[in-house]
Design goal:
With 271 residues, the chain is an alpha/beta fold. It has a single domain, classed as UDP-N-acetylmuramoyl-L-alanine:D-glutamate ligase (3-Layer(aba) Sandwich). It contains eight helices and nine strands. A six-stranded mixed β-sheet has the order 3-2-1-4-5-6. It has a three-stranded antiparallel β-sheet with strand order 7-8-9. Helix 1 packs across helix 7, helix 3 runs parallel beside helix 4 and helix 5 packs across helix 6. The termini are far apart.
């Protein structure tokens, strides 16, 4: 008698490629693998970048982004989708139209606007499309402090009260939850705030003294998607993702990669 094989949890990342392997699609797939989830991908842009910066961006035609998404969903049982770098408005429209057809159970939206190096990764005219079309589709939005401010056309929040207020205004754009990441803040702890209709949950971890933080935001949103793909509820997925990424940052100095902001250690639990 053949033993039934359990269905493998699958997550899809829709994002840009990082040629140095630290962020974007590459970080997402490493995160999925590290957390026991099979990763598929739809690439929105190719970037020429390394740990010191981005030197070029080549946009994938929107119709080919659609083709990648359709190819994955037509064959794989996708349980969660993570969306990262979308680059341009036409790509936002292509993603929205495709996901409306396939109706995935969970969408995690990381509004990637600027790389760790400071290079801009989202065209200004695409911000409105992100607000109006993608955010209402997401189960959770994961901006850092500058991204939350940019989405709302407001100054960067500098207090817990201001962060919570911005979180509530992000919810008014149509998503049920927003995780505002505190990595750009100060203090000995990095505090992320999960804002939802149930209130605000503060998630704190010691701030690691490392410059190797390339791909942190990509990896956190992918870790949340991995948890959702495995069947965790949203709060549990966020808690586990925060803890896992904090450990990956703390272990980042085991690597010596590049001359700028090196990658976090996605496989810190394995070697």
């Amino acid at each position: 008698m053949t033993t039934p094989v359990a269905t493998t949890p699958v997550a899809l990342t829709i994002a840009g490629s990082d040629s140095s392997g630290g962020a974007g699609i590459q970080a997402d797939l490493k995160t999925f693998a590290a957390l026991g989830v099979y990763g598929a991908s739809a690439i929105t842009a190719l970037t020429a970048q390394n740990t010191t910066g981005v030197t070029g961006i080549h946009l994938v035609p929107p119709e080919f982004v659609t083709a990648q998404i359709d190819a994955v969903f037509s064959d794989l049982e996708v349980r969660a989708v993570k969306i990262g770098m979308v680059a341009q408005r036409a790509t936002v429209d292509a993603i929205v139209d495709a996901l409306q057809r396939w109706s995935p159970a969970h969408i995690v939206l990381d509004p990637v606007m600027v790389a760790t190096s400071g290079d801009r990764l989202l065209e200004p005219e695409a911000v409105a499309a992100l607000r109006e079309r993608l955010i209402p589709m997401a189960a959770i939005l994961t901006p850092n402090l500058p991204e939350a401010a940019a989405l709302l056309d407001e100054p960067v929040a500098s207090s817990q009260a201001a962060i919570e207020a911005q979180g509530r205004r992000l919810l008014a754009l149509g998503c049920p939850a927003a995780l505002i990441k505190g990595g750009h803040g100060g203090g000995s702890d990095s505090v992320d705030y999960l804002v939802s209709a149930a209130g605000t949950l503060a998630l704190s971890a010691p701030r690691s003294p490392t410059r190797n933080t390339h791909g942190t935001g990509c990896s956190l949103s992918s870790a949340i998607a991995a948890g959702l793909a495995r069947g965790e509820d949203l709060v549990t997925a966020v808690r586990h993702a925060k803890a896992w990424v904090s450990e990956a940052i703390a272990a980042a100095d085991r690597f010596s990669v590049g001359h700028g902001h090196g990658p976090i250690h996605h496989f810190h639990k394995h070697y």
